[in-house]
Amino acid sequence: MRDDSIYTLLKADHETVREIFKEMEDTEGRATRERLVTRLKLELQAHAEAEDMVFYKPLREADDARDIILEAEEEHRVAMRVLGELERLDPEDERWAARVTVLKEMIEHHVQEEEGEIFKKAKGIFSSELERELGAVFLTEKKRRQAEMRAA
Length: 152
Known about the structure:
Blueprint: H1 6-25, H2 30-60, H3 66-88, H4 96-125, H5 128-151
C-alpha cells in the first residue's frame, strides 16, 4: 500500500521543486528559462495555496504550532512575491540567475523547517487516519488549483 499521507505528498512536491531549481541553475536561453519559471510557478503556487488551506489551517489552531505556522504562511507569501518578480523579469537580464538563487534559498529554508519542526508538531496533533485524509484533500486541492492556473 502506498503511503499517501500529507507528509509523503508534501515531500514529493519539495523534491519536484528541487529538480526544477536544479534545471534553472543549469540553463540559459529565453525560451527554456520562461518555460521553467512557468513550471515552477505551477508547482509552487498550487502547492502553497493547497498547503495553507489543508495542512496549515488546522495546525494554526494548535497553540504550540501557531507561531511556526504563521511564519510558514509568511514565507509562502514572500516566496510568491519573489516568484512574481522573477516571472516579470526578462530571462536574459543579468539579475535572473541571482533572483533564482534567492528564491531557491528561501524555499530550501522553508522546506527544512517544514520537514523538521512543522512535521514533528503535526505528527503530535494529527492521527494517522487524519494524515491520510489530509493527503487526499491536499492532492485534490493542488490538482484543482493547477487546472485553474493552466486555464487562466
